[in-house]
Amino acid sequence: xxxxxxxxxxxxxxxxxxxxxxxxxxxxxxxxxxxxxxxxxxxxxxxxxxxxxxxxxxxxxxxxxxxxxxxxxxxxxxxxxxxxxxxxxxxxxxxxxxxxxxxxxxxxxxxxxxxxxxxxxxxxxxxxxxxxxxxxxxxxxxxxxxxxxxxxxxxxxxxxxxxxxxx
Amino acid sequence: xxxxxxxxxxxxxxxxxxxxxxxxxxxxxxxxxxxxxxxxxxxxxxxxxxxxxxxxxxxxxxxxxxxxxxxxxxxxxxxxxxxxxxxxxxxxxxxxxxxxxxxxxxxxxxxxxxxxxxxxxxxxxxxxxxxxxxxxxxxxxxxxxxxxxxxxxxxxxxxxxxxxxxx
DNA sequence: ACTATCTAGTTAACAACTATAACTATATGC
DNA sequence: GCATATAGTTATAGTTGTTAACTAGATAGT
Lengths: 167, 167
Hints:
Arc Repressor Mutant, subunit A, MarR family transcriptional regulator (chains A, B), DNA-binding, HTH_MarR-typ (chains A, B), MarR/SlyA-like (chains A, B), WH_DNA-bd_sf (chains A, B)
């Protein structure tokens, strides 16, 4: 089936019958955006497989963990923390509420805002999911040592939250 | 405006009036998928700003660089390399062709397939964009040293292409 | 109290991206 | 020459991300 191994030759004028299979050697290999996206897709694929049985998507998982950590958080604050637009939060919480994992509590002092809490069921599930997510991370990064994994994590935090990166 | 600094207290039954602003301290901070996504969004934001004047989106940039490296590559192979579905390649190449940056050449041996080439204009633009992308990467990761940036890149390659990671 | 302005949440509309199925034209193997 | 496979394309639908606009309640000034 495979016709030939890739050769490094370049600058030809005829359609190419070789089968290059990676970006190795191209400038693309040095671009952080590209590498981040590809790595993210890899890790997300594992995550989604792990969560498939629970029908939990990445944004839902993140929300559950944040609500668990900040019970009574308002939707606005949740949106800020996760850097998600407020309209997206609405359907996210709707979904969690429909499944009986979270609930909105109208705030007495400011009747416009809702505090979000996990139900007992939501708390229990979140505990499970956190363990699952950790396993998924490890599986997705088999090619990394534990030290490298931690290194990677700390470099990533420096990028997306340079202020909070362990000082 | 700001009401109060976040306190670490948790497990309350009333809506929270504190304003947590990050995932610091939460389990989420240790999840690779989350960190990768947030970091990717950060880097992409810079990239998109840099490319805005040229109306080039990330996938288009990647395509240009791969076509430059493998002139005459078929759409199928381009799809494989970038891990994009074939239908998506079609509109991508259409767009590049409409802008006079790339062109399809029907392959003589296999009249089903097209070799894709950059036009002179496409080549010139790609050179410009590559330099721009590098600058954008650096700007997006000001909080990293050059060594850390290279470290990060190599860790990411290990994840998404464990076989080709510099052996 | 009365009005204007602000904010939290929501709804709706829309663009962008992803994934799938099906169609065409060639090509290949028996 | 017939059945099957492949490259590219088109069409379609589901998901996400983005923006604008609406409602209910809050706040400040007069």
